[in-house]
Design goal:
Length: about 350
């Protein structure tokens, strides 16, 4: 690290620290004033702010920026979750080709286990962050799948990323941390309450979903050892998108980035981004479009039949993640459980037959 990762929000927003942090990319910069803006406090702390500089803000740098770190008492207890995102923005994002936030600083303190990222403020430039209630069309999903294809193709079986510790697969992280019984209780709380009212009856089965996910995690471990893996986003629901000022979908929130299989992202994304009716009428075409994008980016895609079968696994990944989700607006959880549950029912995605390693 050339500049120490800031420990406090006050430090991160100080002209002195920002001057040092921005110097490697903008030599000679001197930040003279920082004007804090809106603060969003979850586990991470996200603060929009503007800067003033001696002689003006340098060319190529926006005056409107956003810092993301783990500065609150709650955030300090979970600082390690920012590791992957900080490394992604620092090391992988520039060459992945996928549209995402433009980072001007990103680093991780291995002693404090704290990752901090500073990006340009896309909202100030006219961008829009999405969630499950946002209107999103199949045509837009085709664009966002193109971004996932760029990420996947740029890292497909790449020796450069094969040993990166921060990309270690961790799809079973919550299972190992909490155990099957506690995970099942969390899913049951969602399924049996208001959030689960529109989940189709045949898949409103908390133990069945958890067992399907256990099988999926085991299958992914086996596939990773024998098949072409790539770097995946890992949490590819519609709420981890923003529209740039030109209206193009871009990817955001990289805490779960890891080595894995392409379908983890694609299945989750198609099932969460569209209404049930739109997904049913367009998912085969969208899957074909993604496979064509892989081909256009130099990767030989799997067969259509194999890809269609594999899509179900990505649906289970999303269904599981939103089944265990608690600290999000219940309205959004309900929408996504309806969409993912409907997709799981349509694809018979909890069937044990789907978790034999395909050939």
């Amino acid at each position: 690290m050339s500049v120490m990762v800031p420990d406090t929000l006050d430090e991160a927003l100080s002209p002195q620290w920002l001057t040092a942090a921005l110097q490697p990319r903008f030599p000679g910069i001197e930040v003279t004033r920082v004007v804090p803006g809106p603060v969003v406090e979850r586990v991470s702390t996200n603060v929009r702010f503007t800067i003033e500089c001696a002689g003006g803000v340098p060319d190529g740098l926006s005056k409107a920026l956003c810092v993301k770190g783990y500065f609150s008492d709650r955030g300090r207890e979970a600082r390690h979750v920012g590791e992957r995102e900080a490394y992604f923005y620092r090391d992988l994002a520039p060459e992945s080709g996928a549209k995402t936030l433009r980072s001007v600083y990103a680093d991780y303190d291995t002693t404090a286990r704290h990752g901090v990222v500073i990006t340009e403020d896309v909202v100030a430039d006219g961008g829009e962050f999405l969630d499950a209630a946002s209107a999103f069309t199949p045509e837009q999903v085709a664009q966002s799948l193109g971004e996932f294809a760029r990420l996947h193709a740029s890292t497909w079986g790449s020796p450069r990323w094969a040993e990166a510790h921060w990309l270690e697969p961790r799809l079973d992280g919550a299972l190992r941390a909490w155990g099957v019984e506690a995970i099942t209780e969390r899913v049951e709380a969602n399924f049996s309450g208001p959030n689960g009212l529109r989940i189709p009856t045949e898949v409103r089965d908390a133990p069945g979903l958890v067992q399907a996910y256990v099988r999926l995690a085991a299958t992914l471990t086996a596939e990773h050892a024998t098949s072409d893996w790539c770097v995946i986003h890992g949490d590819a629901h519609v709420g981890n998108l923003f529209l740039d000022p030109q209206g193009h979908p871009s990817l955001v929130d990289w805490q779960l980035v890891q080595r894995g299989m392409w379908y983890v992202d694609v299945g989750t994304h198609i099932a969460t981004a569209l209404t049930v009716a739109d997904r049913r009428s367009s998912e085969r075409d969208l899957l074909d479009h993604y496979l064509d994008c892989l081909d256009a980016n130099g990767v030989r895609p799997p067969s259509r039949d194999l890809a269609w079968r594999s899509l179900s696994r990505g649906i289970v990944r999303g269904f599981y993640l939103w089944g265990i989700t608690a600290h999000v607006d219940p309205r959004l959880i309900e929408i996504l459980l309806h969409r993912l549950g409907s997709a799981a029912a349509d694809h018979d995605a909890l069937s044990a037959d789907l978790y034999a390693t395909p050939h």
